[in-house]
Amino acid sequence: MATDTHTTAVDELAPLHPDAVGFTLFRVLPNGGSRAYTAVEFTRGWAGADHFLRQLRACGYVRNSSTAPDGWHVLDVLDANGDIVQDYAIPPHPSRAFAYIKRKLKLTVASEDGA
After folding, report:
1. Cα–Cα dist 74/63, whole Å
2. Nearest CA among 21, 61, 45, 36 for reference residue 111
3. DSSP alpha helices (H): ranges in the chain?
4. Is residue 84 packed enough to be buried (19+ CB in 10 Å), middle (13-18) or exposed (0-12)?
5. Assuming Cys at both sites, which of 26, 46, 70, 97 could form a disulfide with 74, CB separation 3.0 to 4.6 Å?
6. Tens digit of pLDDT for each residue in 8-57?
7. Dist CA 96 CA 109 (whole Å)
8. Is 75:85 a contact under the CB 8 Å cutoff?
């Protein structure tokens, strides 16, 4: 029985950046504006971020950005300086994915750019 290694590689979530210690959310609004959220840094640093990311992957709440043509919801990966070092797409379906991340990380709106 042959296996399709391309499908497996596409389905695998990209490894978390080695400098990752936290996350933030970014959202493009239907009116063309955008909304940025507060950031969270895990007390366990990379290990905490990796644990949360694995939970999200298990629920189907994140995927690789390159496989997400919509780009409306983004989980940004932050280093200790608060710089974005990586990102993952949050699929629009299930719609509860964005709300779950926002609630679990206790993120609030930091800025909004209306169009």
Report:
1. 10
2. 36
3. 5-11, 46-59, 96-104
4. middle
5. 26
6. 355 689 999 999 999 999 998 888 899 999 999 999 999 999 999 999 99
7. 17
8. no
The answer, yes or no, to whether the previous bond of 15 is cis (omega within 30 of 0) is no
Round to whole Å and give the CA distance between 68 and 102. 19
pLDDT score at 17: 98
Position 33, amino acid: G
CB contact set of 4 (below 8 Å; sequence gap of 6+): none
How many whole angstroms separate alpha carbon 115 and alpha carbon 113? 7
Which segments of 35-91 does DSSP mark as H helices, in order? Answer: 46-59
Q: How far apart are CA 110 and CA 76, in angstroms?
A: 14
